[in-house]
Hints:
The structure holds two protein chains of two kinds. By secondary structure, chain A is an alpha/beta fold. Chain A has helices spanning 41-48, 71-78, 96-101, 112-125, 141-153, 171-188, 199-205, 223-228, 232-239, 242-245; strands at 3-12, 15-25, 30-34, 56-61, 64-65, 81-84, 159-163, 191-196, 208-213, 216-221. Chain A has a six-stranded mixed beta sheet, sandwiched between helices. A four-stranded antiparallel beta sheet of chain A has the order 2-1-4-5, with helices on one face. In chain A, a hairpin with a 2-residue loop joins strand 9 and strand 10 (216-221). Chain A is globular and about 60 Å long. Chain B is mainly α. Helices cover 87% and strands 0% of the residues of chain B. Chain B is globular. Classes of the chains: A alpha/beta, B mainly alpha. The interface between A and B is medium-sized, with 23 and 13 residues.
Amino acid sequence: MSIRLTEVRKGFGTKEVLRGFTLGVEDGETAAIVGPSGSGKSVLLKHLVGLLRPDSGAVVVDDHSVPELSRDDLARLRRRIGYVFQFAALFDSMTITENVGMGLRRLPGWDRGRTAARVLECLGLVDLDGLGGRYPAELSGGQRKRAGLARAIAASPKYLLYDEPTTGLDPVTTSVIDGLILRMRDELGVTGLVVTHDMTSAFRVADRITLLHEGKARFTGTPAEVRTARDDVLRGFVEGDPGLYYGLHGGQQNGP
Amino acid sequence: MLDFLSKPLAVAGRGTIGALGSVGRAWTLFAGSAGAMRHVDIWGPHLFPQMARVGVASVPIALFIATFTGIVMSLQASYTLTGTIPLYFVGTLVGKTMILELGPVLTGLTLAGRVGASISAELGTMRVTEQVDALETLAYDPLAYLVVPRVLAGILMFPIVVLLAVAIGIVSGWFTALQLLDMSTPEFVKGLRLFFEPWDVWFAVIKAVSFGAVVTGVGCFYGLQTERGAEGVGKSATQAVVVGSMIILCLDAFWAVILL
């Protein structure tokens, strides 16, 4: 198991966002965590790169217990993880080329020539050829997301974490981004974890889908299993039915 | 029944916990930044650009303020001394006051506004747009990349800006004495040299170094603590200026007690 979260709990002040979340992601698999905005999906993702520490529970990536790593070991692990931020989080004072090359600068053996060649290759992979000289503010939302993806894959990571990769994008651009996520899995063989509230996107890119509900993994299954599941909360979320999701039509069923 | 007591106590308790939390976070930032200094490959390339931003770009405003401070000091000294003490003491007052107090403190307070707010707003924007998180995921230590070069630039450049301000303040005081007070250059210089001690200059430099560390460090601290979007960025910038200015004034008194 490449990524393993076991009984993870995390609170902010008096609000407990994660209440014993458990999930495993296999090598080469792309998993999706779905749930409404504010359910703790991004919080979960940040635990995997050590940006947040759990109050309790285990967070294991590549056989390393992330919360227990020293700063240097965490930096080494992060070089094997690419993180695509919800709003791209590009460095706005740098060009796209500088952004994409940022993670390579500190890697041993990466001189200017090799870095420049890799940046061009990554920009090509996300169809941003010729836009490397622009600043983030000069790109559209979809282009910024793709630049963020190019930056995340530059160091050839083993894992890619996507935080709401299609939020705020039009359906066509969403489809392009989904295609890129599949391409990363199929061509680069990376293990992916996508958090999203976009079910169309989740069905398209994920091998397995987990619903995060009230801080726990409510349901995990393949896209086909999710489509046929009888769990009211899951059905409510997939179908966008608040009555089912919030249990306004009567009792809830637990499990598929 | 004891509501009248419990409410103020609760407020005081929350305030104390908040203040202790800030001290703890500030200590964590300080210790982390000291540890991050070993990453010279990260902060090294950013030191000179930061020195230009923190120091060189601050020279015009610092000199503008020093010029007018020198003029006013000269005129007020003359107003106070005329008819009681020889006029060459104008040079003494202008020199001593500019070197020991007004040069460092006015420059420090000015740069707390210019540099402290700028650093806080920049880092705050990076924080709320997840650029700081992005740095971490790319295996950069944000303290080495963002804090160390800015604080070092403050420590290195504040003394230079302060000494320039002191020099310009004295020159403008001298020029005012010549043009408006009917004093001669030898008279002004006589007063200037009367109680001059080389240690005074070192005193100004020590204060400037501490002010540089405080202004940039406080700016970084509040910038990295920023939460909740544009409003949070504005709040952080304000806090950086207010707290930076307060610490400068406290340090000013501290150094006077310790070193004079």
